[in-house]
Design the sequence.
């Protein structure tokens, strides 16, 4: 039999015992309560260079995505969003090999505040979560409601006709000639088993095309020091093991359903054989 129990909304900002550190600790103990999936705590009160402390740094258990989380009791204000974006920006610059998402957690996220931060959404990956503390007799529960989600502007998949075009010169300016040379070496591995492919330059990544049509079992994102390579293979212990044995830095991204490899110039040519084998496997799986 279900029994009705009266509850009371608690405002942590004015509570004598349950403060911001208490809320941070509850999230740190079980990051999944945020409703953002299976998350793992990386750091709490992480010191930022000349910018204070990041409340929580979390990562997605099955991908290379990280979440920079700022917690505020009471109503959100301008300084909160500036601090959240600043910490997100610092972390993404320090660790560009990961995908980063800024997260704001507050007790009261106003409509005016939502209007402001929605302007950034799609350009800055930003999630807003409203937290409520509920007291039932002598116990306290927390509820988290996502009121603004990160909007992805465009998919990294085979629908490249909608992607903004770019040129090799654009990517040379964005990365450098050295990492573009790594892209060329990786692309040469593809041409060994399918010479009809060509590189297709887009503003967010470099893809593949065959007979003028996008065909992306492989995506390439050059950075200053390495290339981020997306290989369209399903997640499996066997594939993960072979990548690790080959000494390749790789994580599986469930959102795009592919392994993401970080390839540096020093990885070639020693790991070219392992890379080629996985590219062939992805091609076979993609075209079957």
Sequence:
């Amino acid at each position: 039999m279900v029994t009705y129990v009266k509850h009371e909304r608690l405002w942590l900002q004015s509570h004598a015992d349950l403060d911001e550190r208490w809320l941070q600790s509850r999230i740190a103990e079980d990051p999944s309560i945020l409703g953002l999936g299976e998350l793992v705590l990386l750091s709490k009160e992480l010191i930022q260079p000349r910018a204070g402390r990041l409340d929580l740094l979390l990562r997605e258990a099955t991908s290379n995505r990280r979440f920079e989380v700022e917690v505020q009791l009471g109503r959100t204000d301008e300084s909160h969003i500036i601090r959240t974006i600043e910490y997100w920006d610092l972390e993404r610059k320090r660790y560009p090999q990961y995908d980063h998402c800024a997260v704001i957690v507050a007790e009261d996220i106003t409509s005016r505040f939502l209007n402001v931060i929605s302007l950034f959404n799609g350009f800055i990956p930003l999630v807003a979560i409203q937290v409520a503390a509920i007291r039932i007799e002598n116990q306290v529960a927390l509820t988290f409601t996502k009121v603004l989600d990160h909007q992805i502007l465009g998919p990294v998949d085979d629908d490249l006709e909608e992607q903004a075009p770019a040129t090799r010169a654009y990517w040379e300016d964005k990365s450098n000639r050295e990492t573009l040379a790594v892209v060329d070496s990786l692309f040469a591995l593809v041409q060994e088993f399918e010479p009809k492919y060509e590189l297709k330059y887009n503003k967010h990544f470099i893809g593949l095309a065959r007979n003028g049509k996008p065909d992306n079992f492989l995506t390439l994102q050059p950075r200053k020091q390495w290339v981020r390579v997306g290989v369209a293979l399903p997640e499996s212990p066997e594939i993960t093991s072979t990548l690790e044995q080959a000494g390749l830095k790789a994580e599986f991204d469930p959102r795009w359903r592919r392994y993401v490899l970080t390839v540096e110039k020093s990885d070639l040519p020693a790991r070219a054989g392992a890379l080629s084998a996985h590219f062939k496997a992805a091609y076979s799986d993609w075209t079957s």
Remarks:
- The mean pLDDT is 86.
